[in-house]
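User: My collaborator sent over this chain with a note saying "see what the structure looks like." That's all I know about it. Can you take a look?
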Amino acid sequence: MKTLMTISLGALAMAAATPAFAQSDDAARNWTGPYIGGSLGLGWQPNFDRDTQETLAFDTNLDGTYGDTVRTATGGNAFSPGFCRGVAGNSLPVSCGSDKDKRTAWKVHAGYDMQMGNFLVGAVVEGGKSNFSNSVSGYSTTPANYVFTRKLDWDGAARLRAGYILPTNTLLYGTGGLAYGKIKNSFTTTNGFNSFTEENRTDKDWGWTAGGGIEQKVSRNFSVGVLYKYTRFNDSGYTVNAGQGTPPSLTNPFVNPTQTAGSTDIQRTSDRFENHSVQATASFRF
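Assistant: Without extra context I'll predict from the sequence alone. Here is the result:
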């Protein structure tokens, strides 16, 4: 990936260093028209406190409000061992891992630009694979672990962009618009007693994206560039219901009739699913 970015930046530098090309070819200086292309680069997820300190939230009375405490038969906190960001290694509260925070991402795009003097406005649609995933794990006193994972299977966007064209035929621009992604949720546990029912496992979610870039025309019909974007989805609604096992229990923390409504709903405490990306772009212009 470092090699890819080096090549892209090198191409931009070489093109910007030869203004004679742009000055001698009026057609090459014209950005107006349609284009198609692709991009390849690196994406990563932030690890702010809200991400690294994410936990699981419980609704024991099924009133739709989360933040209840799952209680043992003696009244203790059934999740006193705690939580961690990532996939649990075993049933004990130890370090977690396996988050795919940094991934190679690719996209294809098509757009249209309109040049007005040195200014440019345009629109572009894009789509491709990102393959980000992150998890959060909880530990009960049983002992057992409970792992929630969300994955961005694919995503796309419809963006506007506006920028300024330098004398070297180099475009500096900002961009932003709507994002759309397919998010898959999954759940695993080492708890073999309770039943677990998932709701809203797959979510096709709207979000937003914004960023900026630099693009250089290297010929009449070809341009290369580097693009940074921030993209955010709010993945809400995925719920796991912990129900009665076999044989039935009157003391199990998830279903204890004196502590719950007969089962317990579980969700993640954060619905924010976001990523940053830096990609090398290439476009063929008609």
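A starting point for your reply to your collaborator: Residues 2-16 form the longest helix (15 residues).
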